[in-house]
Fold each of these.
Amino acid sequence: MEWRYRCTRCEGLLVPEATTWCCPRCGGVLRIDPPLRLVRDAIDAEDRTLWRYAAALPVARPPRTLGEGLTPLVEGELDGERVRFKLDFLLPTGSFKDRGASVLLAFLAAQGVRRVTVDSSGNAAAAFAAYAALHGLEVSVFAPAGTSPEKIVQARAYGAEVNFVAGQRDTVAAAAQAAGRAPETAYASHNWHPLFVEGTKTWLLEVWEQLGRRWPTACFIPVGGGSLLLGAYLALQALGGNGPALVAAQPEACAPLVRAWTRPDQVLEPVEPGVTLAEGTRIGRPPRGELLLETLRMSGGWPEAVPEPLLIETTRLLWRQGLFVEPTAALGAAAYRLVRRRGWLPGEPVVIVLTGSGLKAAGAVKHMLDQR
Ligand SMILES: [Zn+2]
């Protein structure tokens, strides 16, 4: 391997090993150094999966895939304005998390890992479990006690062993990390691992191709842990040029980036997540928070807090266009409507990522329909 891990905090340089997911010296977030560039001729146009960008990924195309990647970019409308929706809820497990899980697990499998541990109660657990099944790896999911059986059923179907842990999200993560220290085992974290975001960068590489090899003017992205946002920035680094403004959409009930943005020192303080239908973004202290703020600044973007009534209305609006998404996935569209109401005109093309399928949240959907 020609690349290394670089710590974003202490700047330390590390040789990548299967078990490394954060800086062993200071606990900081790692990134790949130097950033992987994509030479335009190196795109494998014959490959209809995200592995068409293997030349800019840190691991070779695995022997088998689930056909993940190259999701449609379709035209749609919001409040009379033409927008484009990136349909990442059509990935094999029904969420964008496939991109990161695909690349990270291909890497871990190639490194000889036999078992992975994951802390998630939803889409990440399902994605890791699916690609673990594909590569013949065992997977242990750690979820908070009280997680509804409905949310974890997909991961179980793929063969994941599920462990319920009492306590806060940090306690659950610590249990997954501890179990990940066993022999031939690795902690596969969607919130920490640098290879997960290498996989998520493929969504914006695809958009660039789908727009005729040009960047959109702005992208609206649901942000909880922020892997889609960080991935977008890696895509800009990979191709260069004048990229889009990246707008992070968070629910008002849990918007640590918006809170930090309004502070003079822009320091990220953890928030206590409130009640919201956007469950996938209820992360009060994103491990890569400082990096997310820096990414927004560098792209000319900013974070938006979406009020709950607007989120619900926008989710329904998408359904009525034939787009069956879960409420978390409607955050980007709702944030777009907010900035348009304030009079901001980004100019075309604007891209809104739809991150997760409504099939994931049958309970919430029924609740919303019954309340009408
Ligand atoms: Zn460090």
Note: Residues 97-110 form the longest helix (14 residues).
Amino acid sequence: MRFADIIGQEELKRKLIQTVKEGRVSHAQLFLGPEGTGKLALAVAYAQYLNCKSPSDEDSCGVCSSCQKYNKLIHPDLHFSFPIVNKGTDAEKNICAAHMKDFREAFLADPYLNYNDWMQAHGAENKQGNISKFECYDIISKLGLAPFEAGFKVLIMWLPEYLRDAGNVLLKIVEEPPQKTLFILVAERQEMLLTTISSRTQLVKVHRLGIDDLAKHLELTHELDESTARSVALLAEGNARLARELLNHELGANEQLFMDFMRHTYTGKGAEILSWIEKAADLGREGQKSLLQYGLHILRECFLMRFGSAKLARLKGIELDFVTKFSVFITEGNVADFNRLFNDGIYHIERNANARIVFHHLANESERLLAGAKKSTTVQA
Ligand SMILES: [Zn+2]
């Protein structure tokens, strides 16, 4: 993985390269940022650059013996830890090294993958993954060995949020790693990290992708025209993974389904709501999430419209029609509740909750919120 393979993030790439050139590579770092920013890919590209035998000022060469192995994630001094589902008490099977083939395939197919994508590739079914004590002991023993090749030994821990208390056995190695060892944690949610570990790392913030950077990328990779690419990048709020998901699930279908949802819960017709829930339940998990993401976006636009925000220019066609009509009912009194409602929906769908129950709840609450807004609109009128 070269820096050039990663969307945008130019400033961060420059900073990372600078640390290598100036010999200021901190031995334990925390790459922290939201989903779809490319932080795992950046960690790999950084490690590759650090070990490249003929790096340029902008990137690793991509062709030296070290880069060739890095390109395939098979360098003997490159290790990964990530959440896995533990089975039984056989330590050999419960370490990440036993799952590297699947992990390599999943990452190389989509360097922007998230936890759920990985769990699916890993065949976790509905079980929760974690980074267990077996893995922690394996890390200590792997990092204790001398490097196989010249250069840095690197351990990239993806999603240390799933490290339980067992992670505390890593304190010493994070604080005082063996020479020429680099430990990179790649995380999304700081509040879920063991503070004992994260406090011993240097923070590298990975920001959301610039809309222009993502739009340009989508234009090239998905053969989109400029304006469509931009709408998708905006809708995904700079999340490269979400952008691709939105493209895979056809914007049009979400558009209609979400607008139907708002109309049915506004009029409160039970039969129509029930048939809508069946349709949404049939979408599959990714489709359901993408529908809810779309809903969040439109609700936000409704709210902005109400307050005459300049950002309106991004809407057109039936979206603009819908938002113009519906913005009356998205008020200061309910916008936060709507926001929470849809975000909770996404949260529960991601965790395999029963979709019918999630959408029932969503419909009931939306009906209640809209009824409240109708009432206050009538009173004002
Ligand atoms: Zn190279």
Note: DSSP finds 17 helices and five strands in the chain.
Amino acid sequence: MPKRITLKCTNHITRRRFAGGLLQAALLAAMAPEFIPLRLLAGDNTPSKKIQLGHIGVGGQGAGLLRNFLNVDSAASMAVCDPFRSRRENAGKLIQERQKLDPKLYNDFRDLLADKSIDAVVIATPDHWHVPIGLAAVRAGKDVYIEKPLGHSLAQNQAMLAAVKKHDRVFQYGTQQRSGELLKRGVELVLNGYIGELQRLEVWALGGHGGGSLDEIPVPDGLDYELYIGPAPMKPCTKDRITSAGSWYCSDYALGFIAGWGAHPLDIAIWGMDLDTKGPISFRGTGDFPTPNDLFDTCATWDVEVKFHDGIPMRFMSTNHAAPIVKKYRDDNQGDGTTFFGSKGWVSLSRNGVCASNPDWLKLKQCEGSKRVLYRNKYYKAFVDSVRERSPSVAPIEDALRSDAISHLSLMAVKSGGEVIWDPKKYKIKSAKELSDQMSHPIRGDWKQS
Ligand SMILES: NC(=O)c1ccc[n+]([C@@H]2O[C@H](COP(=O)([O-])OP(=O)(O)OC[C@H]3O[C@@H](n4cnc5c(N)ncnc54)[C@H](O)[C@@H]3O)[C@@H](O)[C@H]2O)c1
């Protein structure tokens, strides 16, 4: 008699993978195995045995993410959604070429989310869609990889945290610098006290710019403009509104690079600060905006003093403000970076490179001390592994909320010209009521966030 093989189903993925492999199970049973050779299980790479991914938003970044996920053997890209027909079709062709299967192509994300065979979704839409689609996804039982920055309002961020917790979903933030080996080493130097007591931080990111045509054009053939604009105010279509730049620099869809690019170095700051829920408590700063007649109307430059609970200051700046300050200790100061200053030295971390007051620290593959961050060197595989294993995310939603709040509150400080006082534990603004009112913003039509 063949021995019966019992596989315990611990979650929906295991069940689905097992159900999808009934034929193989029958074959294995017919082979009367004493046990299943590991190589058979490990070597099974048919789509039904992989984590099934749906890609929502396949413009510049979404198409790049698709290519990255196509390199993850344990995942299969099964569906694509984008209201630009040409973009979803191009993504579909790429999947066809690489995986030799026809993915499902959707105009409307709600149809993709209704597909029960999809385990997880990768969301790379313009920022104003991140949370509305993210919420719908976790409610539909999908795990989510969501591009940075997180939400278009602080209230959206809070709703996203609650939904991820309630539905017990894996969330991974699009802050891929967390898989940078040198950045991880630098963060662990800070956490393990190489720089002594943390005294202050400097964080900088590329600023934005004005411009962008406001001249109305007909909606291009093959674009579902209603779905593109979604919860944002309905405005005439222009050639720049429906581009990457439109989605990065137009306040209808984004906060600008204070969040869009700031997310990366702020994420490294949060990673290295070990602050749990104690986060920042006060914000005061200045900044510049393009003329109100530009389509790209978000904050272009900023210089904000952020204070943490124990008085530690962080100066958060656009690169133009940071350049003369940062060049005193590093010459490659373009782009973005995070410098931690302590009582015994400093460590400066950037995607362009890392440096420290003591260069020998950076030669250590693993520094001394017990504090370790959760690290995986392959960022996209890390997401698929977390989905498969139900294991902690390398870039969890709690950290996304903390770093993204710094962008939102910095922008409020710049706009108001006064101090913004924040309670990070309650996730509430304690200063003027008109500022608390800005924690949420109007949502168009039926696109309510919760
Ligand atoms: N992690 C990084 O380093 C990085 C780099 C670049 C961009 N990003 C982020 O990626 C996101 C996309 O940026 P981009 O430069 O690719 O912009 P993009 O305009 O090129 O792409 C956005 C895509 O989303 C699609 N879209 C719009 N509404 C949609 C909807 N309702 N459903 C599905 N798709 C929809 C658009 O048609 C477009 O194809 C932004 O949030 C941006 O901040 C991250």
Note: Residues 106 and 112 are 6 Å apart (CA to CA).
Amino acid sequence: MTEHATILEIAGLAKRFGGLTVIDGLNLTVGEREILGIIGPNGAGKTTLFNLVAGVLQPSAGTIRYAGREIGGLRTWDRCRIGIGRTYQIPKPFAHMSVFENVLTAAVHGAGKSIRAAREQAEAMLALTGLAADHAQPAGQLTLLDLKRLELCRALAIGPRLLLLDEIAGGLTDAEVDTLLGIIQRVHEKGTAIIWIEHVIRALRKLCHRIAVLHEGAFVTIGEPGAVLADSRVKTIYLGE
Ligand SMILES: Nc1ncnc2c1ncn2[C@@H]1O[C@H](COP(=O)(O)OP(=O)(O)O)[C@@H](O)[C@H]1O
Ligand SMILES: [Mg+2]
């Protein structure tokens, strides 16, 4: 594969809920080594786009190709097993289970690994996300930053080639966002492509190769972060929020 190989290719993607068009004919290509940021006002369709890629929702039209293969017919768990990992906007760990058990469960069920391989993967991802010391804590007792780490860790437990992050920096302090940036940088260095929905623009500006702006289910613009964030249309969309 060349360094410009494509991991995700979306063409003509649409999603309607009854009469409401939420995703409106999207085209998008994401490179294997890319970090792509997605911004847009609340209700723009960002999470719906992730739900379509992850297989939680079926598209009304269009195709999604991942690693060269059309994945429209695959269920969520099959998409996990071929390496599509995602975090949820609202973390939902098993609160009564320990941090380690949460990550192990994701590695066993999400990645279909043996207990032994899952255990190794879980331990490696706990170390990567800085949660190793908290492995025995009940997930329900974590701070917000550690909850976000756990959410990321569970997504990483499946060994993703493509990681979908949904507002993982939301609600964190500047210092906590910096901690998270360090972790995401390390994940990317291990060879994972990332699509990152976020309102914390500072975070996206630091790590993203490109930023896409979603508005009413369509991309207004997509390109180099500096240029996109300086675009007057982008300011209008956000000020109009
Ligand atoms: N399952 C659903 N049924 C009906 N409408 C939905 C559903 N999921 C999302 N929507 C609507 O789609 C629009 C986009 O939602 P969402 O993708 O969550 O936006 P964002 O993540 O950009 O804030 C909203 O108007 C939302 O109410
Ligand atoms: Mg959302």
Note: Residues 6-83+160-239 form a domain with the Rossmann fold fold (CATH 3.40.50.300).
